[in-house]
Write a structure and sequence with these properties.
This protein has 206 residues and is of the alpha+beta class. It has helices at 14-24, 36-46, 79-82, 114-128, 152-161, 169-174; strands spanning 4-8, 51-55, 58-68, 97-105, 133-139, 178-183, 196-202. A 7-stranded mixed sheet has the order 1-2-3-4-5-7-6, with helices on both faces.
Length: 206
């Protein structure tokens, strides 16, 4: 029986979540990592949308995000810009989409279905508020190893077709997301060569 509990963020989790960022994202630039003040701000503006996975009292995973409207005709953005410097002060309760800022699971707890449960908790938030779906920028941690052989567009096409496996995008596709477009210089991440995919989950499609 799983000992993992999925719940909403509480102030006691702020410091552990900041450490989790560093444990999960060694390839990110320091300026791309959320800290205790960011998590405190997210809690203040939209506690319901901030999800944590606990093994006993230990924080082993998290999912953060906020409601917003999104212009799919002008999709380009950076992670920092759309998240209002990671404080989520642009959260709009009337917005049509949940913007998924981050999902992370501690490396020692991966492979236990925690990410799947965090996605399910996000979808439950979307359904409770009758939103259209989830939009997010998904990293491509498998791309840097292939960038001398193919363009990022070819890489993503092959992942979508099931010809290549990407640790993040392949999982997101299994969770019902589709790729809308690519985002260049989304954030500083050597593993993704700074690329991201704009992914969308449609609540009506399930």
């Amino acid at each position: 029986m799983s000992t993992i509990r999925i719940t909403t963020l509480e102030p006691a989790h702020f410091a552990s979540l900041a450490q989790l960022q560093r444990d999960c994202y060694p390839t990110l630039g320091e300026q791309e990592l959320m800290n205790e003040a960011h998590f405190a701000g997210q809690y203040d503006v939209f506690a319901e949308g901030q999800i944590v996975a606990l093994d006993g009292d230990r924080v082993v995973g998290q999912g953060s995000g906020f409601f917003t409207d999104f212009d799919f005709e002008r999709p380009n953005h950076t992670f920092r810009e759309i998240c209002a410097g990671f404080y989520f002060t642009n959260h709009d309760l009337a917005g049509g989409y949940y913007y998924g800022a981050d999902i992370s699971v501690h490396p020692d707890w991966r492979g236990r279905g925690i990410g799947k449960r965090i996605y399910a908790a996000r979808k439950a938030v979307v359904r409770r508020h009758d939103k259209r779906g989830i939009v997010a920028g998904g990293l491509l941690p498998g791309y840097a190893a292939c960038k001398q052989e193919m363009s990022v567009h070819a890489y993503v096409d092959k992942v979508i077709a099931g010809e290549l496996y990407d640790p993040t995008l392949s999982f997101q596709l299994r969770m019902g997301f589709r790729v809308h477009s690519l985002l260049q210089d989304y954030l500083e991440d050597s593993a993704s060569d700074n690329w991201s995919t704009l992914i969308v989950w449609d609540a009506q499609a399930g």
